[in-house]
Amino acid sequence: DSGVTQTPKHLITATGQRVTLRCSPRSGDLSVYWYQQSLDQGLQFLIQYYNGEERAKGNILERFSAQQFPDLHSELNLSSLELGDSALYFCASSPEVTGSTDTQYFGPGTRLTVL
Amino acid sequence: GQNIDQPTEMTATEGAIVQINCTYQTSGFNGLFWYQQHAGEAPTFLSYNVLDGLEEKGRFSSFLSRSKGYSYLLLKELQMKDSASYLCAVFNDSWGKLQFGAGTQVVVTP
To answer: Does the pLDDT of residue B1 top 50, yes or no?
Structure first.
């Protein structure tokens, strides 16, 4: 158990809908990262927040957005869902902003299925 | 950008040794991580290298050569539970993010 929690564990929804995924980082960690993992794409970095502010952006679609709240939990919002958005979504956390010594610890993930 | 290459799959026998290679091309290199991921589960941290050389942690060791853009993960005394995907990930200061390879699926047979 990494100490990172994610809810829900599974989510099934229809195309065109909007969902919110939630992540609570490890106690004391200020950075939260979101990743998408689909069968054909591997683990893709989406976005990072540090202490409430966006710090780095990866291949995140405009239909997706995220935020980090004052209590440091984070939410990833996915809208106008398409079949291709079906994937495992992982949240990870680390103590600081960036840095080579900053190991990221992953949550159990949310499996999103878009029908 | 950066390219990270690792073999797709490797098979080895219980008790044996397997070496998973990872090559990368990147500017602003600032560390290489190895993660283990069982199917449908979260990646779990195995090792971290930022300087050249070998880091040993029990049955797992990781090696880095920055001049060659090369790392390997060595798994010794393989156990059935080691069957998993092993992800090589490079941290790039310029990009400010961790870039993952596609993963190497290791299959351990009895």
So the answer is: no
